[in-house]
Automatic annotation (TrEMBL):
Organism: Streptomyces microflavus (Streptomyces lipmanii)
Keyword field: Signal, Transport
This protein's record includes keyword Cell cycle: no
Molecular function, one GO term: peptide transmembrane transporter activity
GO biological process, one term: peptide transport
Record protein name field: ABC transporter substrate-binding protein
Domain of life, per lineage: Bacteria
């Protein structure tokens, strides 16, 4: 599941256009589903078709349920939808916002108005022109469509003006995060003509990305071909894509080994088997973070000592070892170490200390075993069993309750105790507000927020991404957000993939799968 960066500029002069390198997001640093392709993909088959075209055969456990990007939102499926859709910006290997459909952008001096200039001569795969009117339609649809999963990400955007190839966004607040925000996670742009019928678009995607869907079997398989009209087509070396919903995790490695697939996202439990089979196994950088979600508006979490006890009862390393087989990492923040938003001053603020947890519970008036909690989750999850065990060790009895309609009470903030995982946002400010803001979708304790949080995030938005004060300002906002009593972060699951030797290395773009420059050779 998913959830979601700014000293004001001096003077009143008009500022130059901020191009790809101008909006520096600060480098991440060094740390930063069941169908087999039929007979034509038989064991040991060539990765090229009979005509010699390079074919990527991707088995994914995140096959999109929806192909309308407004409905699909910014969860893990955005990576698959990015085969079809392009955005105003995209993210490079340092986490920077760089040009995509827009070749440049410029803020006014105040920072409450930004104009994107689109590349000339672009068109969607249905022939419709890619112009400012299409951008305006995409933003307004994401804000207003009843089943939109993106409207909460676009609150900084007011009226959109369209003038030829220039789309001007009038903002509701000073916000230098917009180029980071309007990338592949939040604004994948569909043809406005196709989007007139959102229901049809949902299973017949029409975009301007590197590939075009030729065949789609809902929930099972998509066959795509290279889009010759994609603005960066010369750097797309894959001619065809066969995207299938991954079968049982234990069979994916066999499918890769025999040539049924040549690329797959895999479960950590299968990593060793994939390595032994001679496959390339790698972790793509990301922003994944899991947490315990507490509702401080309900007992027993309305008592600060109980909240603090739960914090100290959590052994993050157990999550890493048992759930990620060592490929993930422990985290007490919604950002990975080395990322500009990660706050070193907040690291390990609540270390694992079960004795202290027991003491705090006693101070709160709870004897061992008398505090009972229901942990409500949408489906079976070994993560829940670890939580149950760790809290039992300090005297809290947890009963795991599965509610297939979990999302309704969670987002209505009716639950007391639950789990959540996020894939983050390219805009760190959006990630912070999603978790800690008074209306944040991942804040189970709405309208609660930590003191000073809104002011801290506003200061981030008001600071240009290339300001020397940006990192310090952003980390201060993270520090303020982490004072929240509503979330206890546990671990970061890996974006783990395996591929055959026939597929070349992928760009290390954090949180994304970028096929630019990737080649598929003619044999496994």
């Amino acid at each position: 599941m998913s959830a979601p960066l700014t000293n004001p500029r001096p003077g009143l002069r008009v500022r130059p256009v901020r191009r790809a390198g101008g909006l520096r997001a600060t480098a991440l640093g060094t740390a930063l589903a069941a169908l087999l392709v039929p007979a034509l993909s038989a064991c040991g088959s060539d990765t090229s078709s009979a005509t010699g075209n390079a074919t990527l055969k991707w088995a994914s456990s995140y096959f999109p349920a929806h192909w309308d990007p407004v409905v699909s939102g910014s969860g893990a499926q955005f990576r698959q939808l990015a085969l079809v859709y392009a955005s105003l910006t995209r993210t490079d290997d340092e986490g920077k916002a760089v040009p995509d459909l827009a070749e440049s952008w410029e803020y006014n001096d105040k920072g409450d108005r930004i104009t994107f200039k689109l590349r000339p001569g672009q068109k969607f795969s249905d022939g419709e022109p890619i112009d400012a009117a299409a951008v305006k339609a995409a933003i307004e649809r994401a804000q207003k469509q009843k089943n939109s999963a993106l409207f909460g990400d676009l609150t900084s955007i007011g009226k959109v003006e369209a003038n030829g190839l220039e789309a001007t966004l009038n903002l509701t607040q000073v916000d230098y995060q917009i180029p980071q925000l309007l990338g592949q996670r939040v604004l994948q742009i569909a043809s406005p003509k196709a989007a007139e019928n959102p229901k049809k678009l949902d299973q017949n995607p029409v975009g301007a990305g590197p590939f075009v869907v030729e065949q789609l079997v809902p929930g099972t398989k998509a066959v795509l071909k290279k889009n010759p009209d994609y603005w960066d087509a010369e750097n797309i070396h894959i001619d065809n894509v066969e995207l299938v919903s991954a079968p049982d995790a234990s069979t994916v490695v066999s499918g890769l080994r025999t040539g049924v697939y040549n690329f797959a996202d895999i479960d950590p439990s299968q990593a060793d088997a994939a390595k032994k089979a001679g496959l390339d196994v790698f972790v793509q950088p990301g922003f994944n973070a899991a947490n315990l979600s507490l509702n401080v508006n309900k007992a027993p979490f309305d008592n600060d000592k109980v909240v603090e006890a739960v914090r100290h009862a959590v052994n993050r390393e157990e999550f890493v070892q048992k759930l990620t087989f060592g490929y993930g990492e422990a985290t007490d923040q919604p950002f990975p170490k080395g990322y500009v938003a990660y706050d070193p001053k907040s690291e390990n603020a609540y270390p694992y200390d079960p004795a202290k947890a027991k003491k705090l519970l006693a101070e709160a008036g709870h004897k061992p075993g008398d505090l009972k909690l229901n942990l409500v989750i949408p489906s079976e999850d070994p993560q829940a069993e670890i939580v149950q065990s760790q809290l039992a060790a300090v005297g809290i009895t947890v009963t795991i309750k599965i509610d297939k309609n979990w999302a309704t009470p969670f987002f209505a903030k009716d639950l007391t105790f639950s789990l959540y995982g996020t894939t983050g946002r390219d805009s760190a400010a959006q990630t912070l507000t999603a978790h800690f803001g008074p209306n944040g979708p991942l804040n189970l304790s709405t309208p609660y927020e930590p003191a000073g949080f809104e002011e801290a995030v506003a200061k981030v938005r008001q600071t240009p991404l290339d300001s020397p004060d940006y990192a310090e300002t952003l980390q201060a906002a993270t520090r303020t957000g982490l004072q929240s009593k509503a979330l206890v972060f546990t671990y970061a699951s890996p974006n783990l993939f395996a591929k055959t030797k026939s597929v070349s290395a992928l760009p290390k773009n954090p949180g994304h799968i970028d096929w630019t420059g990737v080649k598929v050779s003619g044999a496994n």
